[in-house]
Amino acid sequence: MSMDEAPEPGGGGAPRGGRTSAAGSVLEKSLRILEAVAAPGGPHRLAEVTAAAAVPKSSTFRILASLAEQGFVRQEADGRYGVGPRLRGLSALVSGGEPASIGRILDELRQAAGGQTVHLALHSGETITYIRKLESEQPFRTASRVGMRMPLHTTAIGKSILAHLPGTEVRELIAATGLAPRTPRTLTRAEELYAQLAEVRARGFALDDEENEPTIRCIGAAVLGPGGRPIGGVSVTTVTFLVSREEIESYAPALRAATAALAPLL
After folding, report:
1. Where are the domains of the chain?
2. Is residue 17 packed enough to be buried (19+ CB in 10 Å), middle (13-18) or exposed (0-12)?
3. Does residue 7 surpass a pLDDT of 50?
């Protein structure tokens, strides 16, 4: 019996035409749960989402867990549920934008960085998800796109996020995901990564020097939320044959100013 056919626990009766109960199919329930999570006043507690979506609590919990695993929902430290980065990325694709002030901040950073590509990403579990990309004014394009999920240890944004997470959480993430290489320059030994994260904390930015994609060099910094916990990050992306490491590091002050300005907006 598939998930769409299974009756609700204690619901009584056989499944009807692929529907789990009078509350609707799993797809219908999931959409109502997403609407409840995205409702104003969030993040919301499980009981609030259950009531707003009109879905049994056991099903709500199970669907939320699946949505959180996929990055559409984010579970906060206190157990409440908020909008996840993949849902924000989808919203940006549909609407074609975000609050004007966010776009202005990112464009100002692009101009300060000589017209290079700028990314904004949000953190969710073991990955980051790009929710905004301003293309370079230079005659080259990168493979990244809005909605793309990337590992933490290979990207400048990801490493800047790791640098601001508790050490125990970083170790748990590495144990769970490993440090798979994406290029020959990817850091695949935990000791090397820990040493680089200490440098990131000291200087306020991270560098991806062809660790995620050949010929691509990025500088990134975290956007910090309440209590100093990272919620995402911003990066400036260049190509190695046009921009030296020294030049890209010179963008650090503008990058840090952008992340500080974005923090209250995100």
Report:
1. 1-83, 96-265
2. exposed
3. no
Looking at every residue in the chain, the average pLDDT score rounds to 86
CATH number of 96-265: 3.30.450.40
Tokens 């789990």 -> residue:
20
CATH 1.10.10.10 matches 1-83: yes
Residue 265 has what pLDDT?
Answer: 81
Nearest-angstrom CA–CA distance, 116 and 127: 23
The model's pTM? 0.71
Amino acid at 106: L
Phi-psi region of 48 (alpha: psi -120 to 50; beta: other; left: phi over 0): alpha
Rounded Cα–Cα distance for residues 74 and 80 (Å): 8
Residues of the chain above pLDDT 90, percent: 60
Distance CA 14, CA 218 (A): 56
Q: What angle do CA 54, 44, 119 make, to 5 degrees?
A: 120
Evaluate whether 1-83 and 96-265 have a shared fold.
Answer: no
Structure token digits, residue 134: 């301003």
Q: Write out pLDDT tens, residues 22-52.
A: 457 889 999 999 999 999 888 999 999 999 9
Name the pLDDT band for 76 (thresholds 50, 70, 90).
confident
User: Under 8 Å CB-to-CB from 173, ≥6 apart: which residues?
Assistant: 126, 152, 162, 165
Write down the residue that tokens 């997403």 correspond to: 34
Q: Which amino acid is at 227?
A: G
Q: d(Cα 5, Cα 7) in Å, to the nearest integer?
A: 6
Does residue 173 carry a pLDDT above 70? yes
